[in-house]
What we know:
Blueprint: E1 2-6, H1 13-24, E2 27-30, H2 31-41, H3 44-54, H4 61-72, E3 81-84, H5 90-102, E4 109-114, H6 117-125, E5 127-129, E6 136-138, H7 165-174, H8 179-187, E7 191-195, H9 200-213
Parallel strand pairs: 1-3, 1-4, 2-3, 4-7
Antiparallel strand pairs: 5-6
Helix pairs in contact: 1-9, 2-3, 4-5, 6-7
The structure holds BIS(adenosine)-5'-pentaphosphate.
BIS(adenosine)-5'-pentaphosphate (AP5) binds near residues 14 and 123.
Amino acid sequence: MYLILLGSPGTGKGTQANILADRFSWLHVSTGDMLREAVTAGTELGKAAKSYMDQGALVPDNVVIGMLVERINRPDAEAGFVLDGFPRNLAQAIALDEALRQQGKSIDVVLNIVVPEEDLLKRLTGRWLCPNCGEIYHSQSRPPKQAGVCDKCGTQLIQRDDDKPETVKARLEKQRTPDNLLAHFRDQKKLKDVDGQQAVDKVTADLLGAIEGSK
Length: 215
Ligand code: AP5
């Protein structure tokens, strides 16, 4: 199964992608994680991306598309993947369709997680992450058992640079899912909305129902 999770920053794409990827042994492809790794490693790609990410803007398509296509062309993507954070616009969606078409594949289902914008600022400024295993927490809605420590692997949790309130506001303003991207997948009859303003396990249950219904 080849699946896309869409949604504004903070709607829960990463949280749900982790759960689905674990459950079905799919590859979890997060363009945000890939870009942050490139920034930390100081690669040319990371240098090109950093200033956009710091401003809460999208990184240009010519940087992101090649990176994503190279990743999904590797053998470990063959059995299935869940895309988290890609595509963000119509040009990226068209490039993805074309890359998959060349391999005789196509996206099976696109799940759009919907959360009212007023909740997203709270979600992002309260987020804590495990830099080792990628588990995602929230200081109020999903706290770790021991403050500041990952339940799964015991690593010290961190906050993302772009989760500062001023950067979050810019991200929410600049990174709403564009209508023409939703229309693209609606025309392909692949788009399903899922209510993301429920408990994490309820959102997962709705995503699983939508995946099942798309088979
Ligand atoms: P990226 O890392 O993809 O950031 P994002 O899209 O802003 O999404 P987030 O990771 O912030 O949120 P999420 O939806 O994954 O929510 P999460 O599960 O963590 O991208 C970072 C940057 O890279 C972008 O700003 C851009 O510059 C660049 N970039 C990436 N992809 C790009 C592309 N394709 N093109 C161009 N540029 C690109 O949850 C958030 C919080 O809410 C957590 O604390 C979590 O515990 C909590 N939470 C989750 N679910 C629930 C729930 N049901 N109830 C209550 N709390 C919940």
